[in-house]
Amino acid sequence: MNINVTGLILASGGSSRMGRDKAALKYNGVSFLQLAVGHLKAADCDEIYINNADNLTDLISGLGPLGGIYTALTSHPKVQYWLIIPIDMPTLTSEILTRLQQGLHDADVARFDNEMFPILLKSSDQMRNHITALATDKQQSYSMRQFTKPFNVNILPKPRGSEAAFANINSPEDYETLCI
């Protein structure tokens, strides 16, 4: 499937467990932000947005990843496909992102088994309306599962031997393990 995809890097979290900005952390001498941009470029994203305080700032704070996705979908309604990755997955590969794009087929959402990120969304009015309802209802759960629940989701098997690519670096201990 040949589609025009826009990349979104979720980097607006408080990094409370890490104690410092994850985007500036380095893996093999390259910042997590540079790695994320590189992965999305290699996966042929037409444009790349960074959800953080300096670029695409959350319209509603306190929603976690859903806040960045809400901001992207509502700020850029003409984008048809969003390939979304968190800043804290430095070992993700462009091959995994390409496989995700190939796995969308007729679904609204594609993701890997037991993983919420990376995720590919086919943006629509229905999706924007749903995420707006979730984001503005203080009684709602702000989970990704709740967000994707009403949509046709294609759950792909992880490529063999790719488990390390899905690792999130959330704490100094995770980062130390990554750098060993």
Keywords:
alpha/beta; Spore Coat Polysaccharide Biosynthesis Protein SpsA, Chain A; 6-stranded mixed β-sheet; two-stranded antiparallel ribbon
So, CATH architecture? Alpha-Beta Complex
Q: Looking across the biggest beta sheet, what order are the strands in?
A: 4-1-5-7-6-8
Give helix and strand order, one letter per element, not per position: EEEHEHEHEEHHEH
First-to-last CA distance? 38 Å
Proportion of strand residues: 15-25%
Q: What would the average pLDDT be, to the nearest integer?
A: 93
From the 3D structure, determine the CATH topology: Spore Coat Polysaccharide Biosynthesis Protein SpsA, Chain A
Unreliable segments (pLDDT under 50, ≥5 consecutive)? Answer: none
Computed structural class: alpha/beta
Write down how many β-strands occur, each being a DSSP E stretch of 2 or more residues: 8
How many structurally independent domains? 1
Measured as a percent range, the helix fraction is: 25-40%
Query: For this structure, what is the CATH class?
Result: Alpha Beta
Give the biggest beta sheet: 6 strands, mixed
Oligomer: single chain
CATH superfamily: Spore Coat Polysaccharide Biosynthesis Protein SpsA, Chain A
Describe this structure in words.
This protein is α/β, with parallel strands linked by helices and 180 residues long. The protein has a single domain, classed as Spore Coat Polysaccharide Biosynthesis Protein SpsA, Chain A, CATH 3.90.550.10. The chain has six helices and eight strands; from the N terminus they run E-E-E-H-E-H-E-H-E-E-H-H-E-H. Strands 4-1-5-7-6-8 form a six-stranded mixed beta sheet, sandwiched between helices. A two-stranded antiparallel sheet has the order 2-3. Helix 2 (65-75) crosses helix 4 (125-136). The chain starts with a strand and ends with a helix.
